[in-house]
What we know:
The complex is a heterodimer of chains A (255) and B (212). Chain A contains eleven helices and two strands; from the N terminus they run ααααααββααααα. With 255 residues, chain A is mainly α. Chain A has two domains: 145 residues, no CATH class; 70 residues. In chain A, strands 1-2 form a two-stranded antiparallel sheet. The longest helix of chain A has 31 residues. Chain A starts with 14 loop residues before the first helix and ends with a helix. The relative contact order of chain A is 0.14. With 212 residues, chain B is an all-alpha fold. In chain B, 75% of the residues lie in helices and 2% in strands. Chain B has a two-stranded antiparallel ribbon with strand order 1-2. In chain B, helix 3 packs parallel to helix 5. The radius of gyration of chain B is 17 Å and the shape is globular. The N and C termini of chain B lie far apart (34 Å). At the A-B interface, helix 2, helix 5, helix 7, helix 9 and helix 10 of A face helix 1, helix 2, strand 1, helix 3 and helix 6 of B.
Amino acid sequence: MQHLYIDRYAGLDSFIHKIDPRIKVITFFIFILYIVLTNPFSYLSFLLYGLVILFLIAISRIPFPFIFKKTLAVIPFVVLIAVFVPFIKRGEVLASYTLGSLRIEFTREGIVLFWAIVIKSYLSILCMILLTSSIKFTSLLKSLEKLKIPKLFIMIASFMYRYSFLIIDEAQRMQRAKKSRAFKNKKGLSAVKMLSNIAGVLFVRSYERAERVYLAMCARGFQGEIKTLDTFSIVPRDIMFLVSIFATLLLIQFV
Amino acid sequence: MHIPDGFLSANTWVSTWIISIGGIGYCIKKLSKILREKMIPLMGVMSAFIFAVQMLNFPIAAGTSGHLLGGVLAAVLLGPYGGAVVLAVVLSIQCLVFQDGGLTALGANMFNMSFIGSMGGYVIYNSIRRIIGNNKGVLIGTAVASWLSVVLASVFCAVELAISGTSPLQVVLPAMALVHILIGIGEAIISVLVVSFILKIRPDLIYNSKGE
């Protein structure tokens, strides 16, 4: 199963794509932990992390514009929260401006903290994008299951993945039907009401679909457990990848 | 409200992860007793529904648009445990696939949105519903709980950021709360309209529809 948006570049055939999904998940999760736990003052470490990630993106052959577009997801939160940090953190004052009665001070601690937050969130998001763009969603779920994430949770997530396409299609069909019946795009409460009715119908249809799916599963012998064929295998190349990334991270700590 | 990686200190994200894992484990255990084998398909399809609903955008003033968060809506329709599990699944997928919220911060995001937002919202909804009774109670309960749960979730988010030393409470709390007081109004209006529509066509699908 492959989806044009979610699994857009998951079908490429590069070194990164060939790594066993379990090893890849572990490696990138460790990478993110390292990034998050790094001391804010070690500027060089962040630079080196960035270079390692850029190198990995380059050999994965996933186009850079695709990845950078996805990183924009981090911006709203940074803008809402982090921009205040340089002004409010107490510490050594680097510069101060007086705007009327308001006194604005930049502190060294504040700027370091701001930089650390922005760079940590950006590097982590790059890691996540590289991980999930180089792996098929179904393999990602399967590898999480192998890594002892509760099976029930994984099964619910895999059902969600399968049915989200159907339900999103259904929602789009309803909006198309509304348009084709010459409903003007009104603003205000009537537009909200129309949308709520669509959501209401969508809920009833989804619920009824879930009942039918359940009955169909029962008819096929479902007893609360899903059995899948396991095709994962760890080869020396995978171990090499894990060890070399881990060694690089350790080395960066000592720089 | 999806916190990215790097905003929370280690003790904050580790402790919220532990609370969330325990909470979801408890909810899944409760659910599998109530729903038995039906739980997997029902929760899966309902997660897909909440996911799809979050994609329906509606215009707000000045060219911006918003969408439903669906925490209280999920809890009103599926009950407190079902609502929390559905939101947790949706948040995990958003974190993994769409990078909405970071991996280390996922525990905190689950805590804020599925436990405070959905389960906490259900507690508010249910007590109002009991006091007023009937369909009127359902609708008023949904309205108040939707608004309050969005605001409460943002307050918890602000507190977590403050504990992490990212931003002092007196700055981040009013900023987050003010934004979400406005977002909550939209959330309340839409949730009430959706619930009133479902009350008209399939009232039996509201969780605990007989009000026992």
